[in-house]
Write a structure and sequence with these properties.
The protein has 416 residues and is of the alpha/beta class. The protein is built from 10 helices and 14 strands. The chain has a 5-stranded mixed barrel with strand order 1-2-3-5-4. A 5-stranded parallel sheet has the order 7-6-8-9-10. A 4-stranded antiparallel sheet has the order 12-11-13-14, with no helix packed on it. It is rod-shaped, with a radius of gyration of 68 Å.
Length: 416
């Protein structure tokens, strides 16, 4: 077949775009459906899917539009817009100019009802949630064996914490078999109790795609799990009942892998930091203990019997020296005092002796003058009768015997 019969992809997309752009029936379409996968970006544009029981179409509300109504997944809406082709990828979408609510979708209604039931029963209570093991040895993953989720988790954990072993518990994650298989594998993992953490999840999708994770049976299996569960369903904006019941909700399966494991690079840095601190503290403790040991050794030496005896001997010698010194001072002082006293006494004794001698001589002279014997030298005598001195002639009578004492003897006489 000649090559000039073939056209490029760009030519095909351009041709289809021109057909749609020029179709007046598509200038303004009125469409109703249920909102799914709704996401508003920082630019202000809102992208979502409009769907019914059997089909779906992409839609967008640009920030510059006059639509003030805020939509969210699960809503039934009535939208007015125009159909346009996005030429680079060949997709067509509805650019919505106006939109209004047409009631809640059946799935959304069911979801809210189950949320309220489980909330009242305490299934979302933070007190029930458990801490994850900081350094897990084995991590279990309940997800599809053929999806990208398990590979993403393996790659991230291999880079972050290669010491951990990953065990896959394969399960469908959407469709009619998803709920029973998810429940079975969660319960099986709990019966084996071979893993420290269990990640339950899948990639992104519509509300219908994620619906298995909004079923009560899955919620009960997660709630009753003895192994801490990380729920990682869909993307950041997706929120399922499984997320609310789990011990931890991760925005994506990749985020779950990060939450379940420490980073070996961070651990290495922390270990090196701790080692530096440990060495510093160990050195400080050794220095402190060495200082205390040195002090104890000094105390032991200081308080040894020999040192105590030497100190007592030194003290004794000092006291003896002080005593001898003091005794010498005292003796010298007392000797000086004694000499002074003796000198004073010598003076006083001599003066007293001179004075007493003078008195003696005076009294001796007086006694000498008064001594009868001295008078007898002059011829006087003492006459007595019966040992009584006769002082008058009237003291005697005739024939009385008297005694006459002379200087050199006694004479007896009779009175005539």
């Amino acid at each position: 077949m000649p090559q000039d019969k073939f056209i490029t992809v760009s030519a095909l997309n351009s041709y289809i775009k021109n057909l749609i752009d020029n179709d007046t029936n598509l200038f303004r379409v009125f469409i109703k459906g249920e909102v799914s996968n709704c996401k508003t970006y920082s630019s202000g544009h809102t992208y979502f899917t409009l769907k019914d029981e059997s089909s779906q179409v992409q839609a967008v509300i640009f920030a510059r539009s006059n639509v003030s109504f805020k939509i969210s997944s699960g809503m039934k809406v009535l939208a007015i817009g125009r159909v346009r082709v996005y030429e680079p990828n060949g997709n067509y979408q509805i650019i919505v100019d106006s939109i209004k609510e047409d009631g809640l979708g059946e799935l959304y209604e069911k979801l809210e009802k189950l949320k309220e039931e489980l909330r009242l029963a305490g299934y979302f209570d933070p007190a029930h949630k458990r801490e994850l093991k900081k350094f897990p040895k084995k991590i279990g993953v309940v997800t599809s064996k053929s999806g990208a989720v398990i590979e993403d988790i393996k790659n991230i954990i291999k880079n972050r914490y290669p010491l951990v072993e990953i065990i896959l518990y394969p399960s469908s994650v959407q469709g009619e078999n998803a709920v029973p298989e998810l429940v079975k594998q969660i319960e099986y993992a709990n019966s084996k109790m071979e893993v420290d953490t269990l990640i339950v999840g899948r990639g992104g999708g519509s509300l219908e795609d994620l619906w298995a994770f909004n079923e009560k049976a899955v919620a009960l299996a997660v709630y009753n799990s003895k192994i801490p569960v990380i729920s990682a369903v869909g993307h950041e904006t997706d929120y399922t009942i499984c997320d609310l019941v789990a011990d931890l909700r991760a925005e994506t399966p990749s985020a779950a892998a990060v939450a379940a494991t420490p980073n070996i690079v961070d651990l290495d840095k922390q270990i090196k930091q701790d080692l530096i601190v440990l060495k510093h503290n160990y050195k400080r403790i050794l220095e402190d203990k060495a200082s205390k040991l040195n002090e104890i050794e000094k105390n032991i030496i200081f308080n040894s019997p020999k040192n105590k005896l030497d100190r007592y001997l030194d003290k004794y010698n000092t006291l003896v020296k002080d005593l001898n010194k003091n005794m010498n001072l005292i003796v010298e002082n007392k000797s000086l005092q004694l000499n002074n006293l003796m000198e004073k006494n010598d003076i006083n004794i001599n003066q007293i002796l001179e004075y007493k001698k003078s008195l003696f001589e005076k009294y001796s002279y007086s006694l000498k003058n008064l001594n009868p014997l001295n008078i007898m030298d002059k011829g006087f005598s003492i006459v007595s009768k019966n040992d009584k001195i006769i002082k008058s002639v009237n003291d005697v009578k005739k024939d009385d015997l008297i005694d006459i004492r002379l200087k050199d003897g006694n004479v007896k006489a009779k009175v005539e």
